[in-house]
């Protein structure tokens, strides 16, 4: 069981900055995120794109902002449970919470801060009839164990980096790799596109474009897919395959937190914006893009503000009898849990003789 | 600067006649959101970067629209329910040139 003071769900900019504000209050944090790396949308969707409305940064690339936040919170030693989805929440008798992930990891904290952005990123599933029926029976949306494809025939669909990269990777493992894409053009790193072309010329990858998979078939396990060339049903042909892997990127879904008994409005969690961004369940807060209140703006800078106020409220909940006065970091410095201390240099007083 | 008249058919098939402003640097996705013609969280998810296809729509009038750029082409190549007349609403700026535009919102990806 992982124990912490504030359990943060979502490692986007708001979740990361929460660690800093909590750290100033000597509160420890642990973060759960679906993705394998911190940063949320910024890392997953647009790491190289510029942002112009972070106060004090005339321009900052999304990926750099995440790097900076990670550096800023480093001394507060946040824990991370990455690549797992916060699935269930159980309120304990003492008012604390146990949050369990889809992989069974348990987290115990008096405060839960949902900084879930647009939700957890899930693979986009193409609208193919019967697709769900073959999930885990030949249809996969991500590759966990490449070795299982040894000696098998694999059909990959998609035109981005993950489709290209996995086609290249599996070309050496699988018996047969077929890449199906709706266009002749691929949007991926140039090296990957070139490599796929090489492998195609070597006969190690079969490329079918412009085409798409329109159906899947089999008895119990997947046996093949129906491919439509040139968007023309008359050209449909079956291709036998042990595996079909659609790789169309990820899209955010509110996911399991929608079933936690929280008040939801417009696909977002309603919070008290007059005070501390608490939800209808005391002890659970929602901050950043995931919440809603009158006048809400889904901006990173608003998430930072919400995180700051939320941490003050969390502190009062954890230490109801303590009187706390906010101290400027310029005055109090930043004392990390790792023993490090950053502080403003003292001014030198010296008389002039 | 004048408003333009456009017709937007929502995902339930209901037709809406909208007067869209040309002086607010808006795009079609933002018009749909401002009139709440699709629930929040189901359209414009990426905020207008052509990185999701939640604002996909079908163009049903012969209005002259700006050509698709690389980002939009690439996203549509991986979107679902794509037709010949598919566009991303976030890539269609509201200008005087689109007077009379008629679009139908594509189904939501589940």
Description:
The complex is a heterodimer of chains A (353) and B (110). Chain A is an alpha/beta fold and 353 residues long. Chain A folds into 2 domains: 2-121 and 251-342, FAD/NAD(P)-binding domain (3-Layer(bba) Sandwich), CATH 3.50.50.60; 132-248, FAD/NAD(P)-binding domain, CATH 3.50.50. Chain A is built from 7 helices and 25 strands. Chain A has helices at residues 13-24, 41-44, 62-73, 161-171, 190-201, 300-318, 329-332, and strands at residues 2-3, 6-9, 29-33, 50-51, 60-61, 79-82, 86-91, 97-101, 106-109, 111-114, 120-123, 153-157, 176-180, 205-208, 211-218, 222-229, 237-240, 243-246, 250-253, 264-265, 268-270, 284-286, 291-292, 334-335, 341-342. In chain A, the strands form 8 sheets. In chain A, strands 6-3-2-10-22 form a 5-stranded parallel beta sheet, covered by helices on one side. A 4-stranded mixed beta sheet of chain A has the order 1-9-8-7, with no helix packed on it. In chain A, 38% of the residues are buried. The model of chain A has no long low-confidence stretch (mean pLDDT 95). Chain B is an alpha+beta fold and 110 residues long. Chain B has a single domain, classed as Roll (Ubiquitin-like (UB roll)). In chain B, a hairpin with a 5-residue loop joins strand 1 (4-9) and strand 2 (15-20). The longest helix of chain B has 9 residues, at 70-78. The radius of gyration of chain B is 13 Å and the shape is globular. The interface between A and B is medium-sized, with 25 and 21 residues.
